[in-house]
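Most newcomers find our protein records easier to grasp once they have seen one. A record pairs a protein's sequence with a compact description of its fold. An example says more than a description, so a record of this kind follows:
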Amino acid sequence: MIEDVLVVYKKNFEAVHDKALEAIRSALDELVATTGLRVDYSVRETVRRADFIDRDLVIVLGGDGTLTSIAHSVDSDTPVMGVNSHPRADDSDGSYGFYMGSDPQNFAADIRSAIAEEAIVNMLPRLQAEIVTTSGNRIRCDPALNDLLVANTHQYQPSKYRLQRGAEIDCEQYSSGLLFSTFLGQGAWFRQVADIEGSTFPAKELDSHYLFVARDLPLPDRHDDGSYWTWTDEPTIMTSDMHRGYVVSDGWDETHFTRGATLTVDIEGPKLQLLTFRSSIHDRIAQWIRF
């Protein structure tokens, strides 16, 4: 039952976002008055992980960047509702809002559907990396809804590492870093790095597999064995030969490591429970799915 709601919103002093917030607040005020719903509001830049604990619903007002920037702090038990504050359908300069299932125009009806538990629940897999330092400490980076980058912190220097996956892959590489993507996240960056146009993916593998590519790998090293790019459900292991590197989740927070650290990346991170209302997330990119 939804009783305690947190609204996280984008605040950049643009009138369009303020107007969207007014519409959302008006609809929620009516529910507070008639149902006793409890609602708190927080600006994206000031929200903390503790603010999400024990919430029944998190509403994210903004665009995809706003959602991915705060979703790291939301656990798999808490539903998230994205509201596009500046839809591209209304303004060519607006946000596409792939993960945003609602908008100010539909919000009043959508929030009632969410409270009545009538929304479409999309359980989205997320990538995560575990770092084991040379002293044996274990660090887990933030889960990534779109993509995960592992690279040299000095982007003008090559990323040097040992790459391992399963029984077939064990090699040394020099590249611009390793990019991992969920099925849903491939449109954010991966398709700009690897040529996978025309590729489709089995529907039964969408929640258990992820995409991998070694960025800017020298042409002679671009083999078809999965060491250059692949769609896989096996963990990828990288042992760093860089003075300093980092893991970046969805282009936001960085987790640093040093030479000798071992990183294991898989798609076993906590899932994100995302609500949509008129179509599922997979319906939006059905052209990439093979049934």
About this structure: The domain at 126-269 is CATH 2.60.200.30 (Tumour Suppressor Smad4).
